Amino acid sequence: MSNCLPCHVLAASTVHCICSSHCSTDVDKYLVEQKEVDLNLRDKWDSTPLYYACLCGHEELVAYMLKNGARCEANTFDGERCLYGALNNEIRNLLKSYNVVSSKMMRRDLYEEFLRRLLERGLYEDVTFHVHGESFPAHKCILSARCHYFAELFRTRWMGRRDIHLRHQLVYPFAFKSLLQYIYTGQMETLIENIDDCKRLAKQCKMSKLLKEIDEKYKRLQSFESTKPGVTITTLLVESPLESISLQYDLGKLADLALPQELSKFVQGELPFEPEHAPVYADIVFNVQGYHFLCHKVFFCGRSDYFKALLIDHFGETDMSSDNLPIVNINGVSANIFSRVMFYMYQESCELTEDTVYDVLCCADLYLLPGLKRQCANCISKYISVDNVVQILLTSRLFVLPRLEDQCAEFIANNLDEVLRKQEFQEIVISDANEIKGRQETDSIGIIDDIRFHITSFVQTYSEMEEANERLRQIDDLLEELDLEG
């Protein structure tokens, strides 16, 4: 078989590579940019799409994947495996030129990337650790939510302290930094030679899950090295599976505790925190319809430029809570909808229903939260029907949601008979045609072009081709009736 291009699709969190000698990188771009398929999914052989592209020698696709966040860090399992399996030197050189790029840095609006920047740069920190001459600003709320050992010490020995000095001779700055990295981002990167020091500190902090992950990853690296002569891995990268939500779950505890008691679904003793660990170290109170949300500036300012401007420039507040925290009034939104936005701020997701999703979408747009907008779009896409597809299409354009717009076009392509004759659909066609200025021969009507793409893509059999041609004729007939060229 000739060198082939693997096209990868998402199915039950598994990568299925479909090899073909005539596939186009455009298909992969469509899957990544429109369908938002993750480039770092793994199949049952622990292989990623980038590995298969390297193995098959498709340089153009490798370059595209790297630019869009495929993982290839030097001296790590994934990086060395791709280098070892690359079909030619051109791809090896391409991989090496991107060896400092990680998917965490490339993905847009990524939750872990916000937390990584937060740890590296500091923002509204309320505690600083000093370890043998090095300082590490941190946040009590995050440390308490992620590690019961820290929660207990903040409640007892470290209560009220902003500066904490760790002087034990076996607590090294690099190990403490790695531990904080894992607490904040769910991943930890360290040199192989420092593993024992990191494990010792993790054991002291009673982080059994981290200990287990270090041991499992190290065994995998040893097994890989033993079967690949000449390969030496110097860096251990521990990270949770892409489908893991443990980080979001832990920080979601802060959102649970920030809810006003009148809105909380929990009762005392059923919260994720034990009652004695209940302090959440809030530093801002949002007043929404008379309900007080005990929140943290670090999450709101760190994730939203809207709230950053609101809180940093909010010098005129005069009201203070009973805990001596500034109160900021939020108008134009219900407490019910604001609570969903708040949960997104902390845990990257929130509960959405057909009744609430449009209100949350409006807030996401106002508060400059593109990730929440995409989640709303994903929710709305579940409710697309013949009756509402045109309205959803208009909504997708209004809020600049290209994936939802594409899903509407795909739905119309699959339900052409029922949608084509609707007056509101024909109005969109006319509107798109009127927007074309200085028409050239290659110009086409936006919505018609999108529908045609979905009709003609992935056609494989003669019967499918006949069906596609019939649907294309229906579109041509409509354009002729409307006196349009498209």
Verbal overview:
ANK repeats lie at residues 45-77. Keywords: ANK repeat, Repeat. This is BTB domain-containing protein. Residues 125-192, 282-354 form the BTB domain. The protein has 486 residues and is mainly alpha-helical. The protein folds into four domains: 5-104, Ankyrin repeat-containing domain (Serine Threonine Protein Phosphatase 5, Tetratricopeptide repeat); 111-239, Potassium Channel Kv1.1, Chain A; 246-381, Potassium Channel Kv1.1, Chain A (2-Layer Sandwich), CATH 3.30.710.10; 389-481, no CATH class. The protein is 51% helix and 10% strand. It is built from 24 helices and ten strands. It has helices at residues 25-33, 49-56, 59-67, 77-85, 89-97, 103-106, 111-121, 140-146, 148-155, 173-185, 195-204, 208-227, 246-258, 297-303, 305-312, 335-347, 357-366, 370-381, 389-398, 402-414, 416-419, 423-434, 446-456, 462-481; strands spanning 5-11, 14-20, 127-131, 134-138, 163-166, 187-191, 235-239, 284-288, 291-295, 327-329. The strands form four sheets. Strands 4-3-5 form a three-stranded mixed sheet. Strands 9-8-10 form a three-stranded mixed sheet. A two-stranded antiparallel ribbon has the order 1-2. β8 (284-288) and β9 (291-295) form a beta hairpin. α17 (357-366) runs antiparallel to α18 and α18 runs parallel beside α20. Mean pLDDT is 81; it is low at 1-23, 99-109 and 266-272.
